[in-house]
Every structure is written in C-alpha cells, then in structure tokens.
Amino acid sequence: GKDIRYVMDYVKDMEADLLSSDNKRVFITHSGCDKAIVDTVRDYLTSLNHFEEILETNAGAVVSSHCGPGTLGVLFIAK
C-alpha cells in the first residue's frame, strides 16, 4: 500500500550510499512496522547483492517514543 511506497522511496534514495558502504552487514531497525513492509525492504536490500548479512532489529525505547510506531530505518557503516 501507500506506506510501502513511501518506505521504499526512502530506501531507494539511499542506494548509492548503501552500495558504497561497508558490505559486512546492514540493519533494518523498526518500531512495530508491518511485516510486509520489513520483508519488502529486506528483499530490496538482498537484491542489491552487496551485504553479507541483513539483520532485523527493534528500535529502542527512545527512538520508539520520539518517532512513534511504524518507524523504520536502514542502518549501515559508511566507508
């Protein structure tokens, strides 16, 4: 739906940064996102054929309380 489109626009906007990042691992961190959204982001990151490991984590209390439910971030180490 609409939420997946917005999230994927956000993730695709980072593609150049993702592909130039350290390829060891990337994190999908969220605060209660719908499984379909997380799976779509994971599928996209997998399709880049860049990362050795894709990990899903839950956002902590500070991020969750400030950003609210449904927040998603993609975390990686820039080179």
Automatic annotation (TrEMBL):
It comes from the Bacteria. Signal peptide: none annotated. Gene3D superfamilies: 3.30.1180.10. InterPro entries: DegV, DegV_C. It holds the Pfam family DegV. SUPFAM superfamilies: DAK1/DegV-like. PROSITE patterns: DEGV (PS51482). This is DegV family protein.
